[in-house]
Specification:
- The protein is 49% helix and 18% strand.
- The chain has one domain: Beta-Lactamase, CATH 3.30.450.
- The chain has six helices and five strands.
- It has a five-stranded antiparallel beta sheet with strand order 1-3-4-5-2, with helices on both faces.
- Strand 3 and strand 4 form a beta hairpin.
- It is globular, with a radius of gyration of 21 Å.
């Protein structure tokens, strides 16, 4: 009797640990799934780009680079999250990169996998994939991630370019807001990161 109770308790412990350590599994989306996810992701990513460019351009025109940095610091994450309301299928939107400025944009394991695909292509001088899709299954639920590359535009160089070429005011502002900043040293056209749109498709 005691042995039976012991084995039952041991099995329960292993079951609990197994549930605790359950990891996400990635598989390939079907062509139909990929088409749907791409349409949703492209629309959300496009809206985010337009919104951010409009905000940054207006800030530059009214207050220069310092005002644009304030937009990135105070409004960029809020603007990114607002895109979620653009579609009932969009679960989350994020900008991510290995050389992040805001720690909230740091990649998770799946973001890192997608970034490595683009980094490898960029280092070889190959054309970047226009998009990249992951299908992730966890605990019986299936979600998708749509990624679209972000390239460094000329406007971005005012605060993401060669650190030796930044003005003293900009350098001081960045140091105050982002003491662990990794997001400088870019040239126009460089691959800078990804927009990630997390998507759930209706059953």
């Amino acid at each position: 009797m005691k042995k039976s109770l012991y084995l039952s308790a041991l099995a329960a412990v292993f079951l609990f640990l197994g549930c605790q350590e359950q990891k996400s599994v990635e598989s390939q989306p079907t062509p139909a799934e990929a088409q749907k996810v791409a349409a949703i992701g492209e629309a959300a990513a496009g809206k985010l780009k337009q919104t951010l460019v409009a905000e940054l351009t207006a800030a530059m025109q009214s207050g220069g680079t310092g005002a644009a940095i304030e937009v990135c610091s105070n409004k960029a994450l809020q603007l990114t999250e607002s895109i979620v309301d653009s579609s009932e299928n969009v679960l989350a939107v994020k900008r991510t990169t290995f050389k992040y400025r805001n720690p909230q944009n740091a990649p998770d394991e799946w973001d890192a996998q997608a970034l490595q695909v683009y980094e490898a292509a960029a280092q070889k001088g190959e054309a970047l994939p226009p998009s990249y899709i992951q299908k992730i299954q966890r605990e019986g639920e299936t979600t998708f991630r749509y990624y679209q590359p972000l390239l460094t535009a000329g406007l971005c160089l005012n605060c993401h370019g060669d650190p030796n070429m930044l003005t003293q005011e900009v350098s001081a502002q960045l140091a105050a807001l982002y003491p662990d900043d990794k997001a400088t040293g870019y040239k126009e056209g460089d691959f800078r990161g990804l927009i990630r749109v997390s998507v759930a498709l209706e059953e």
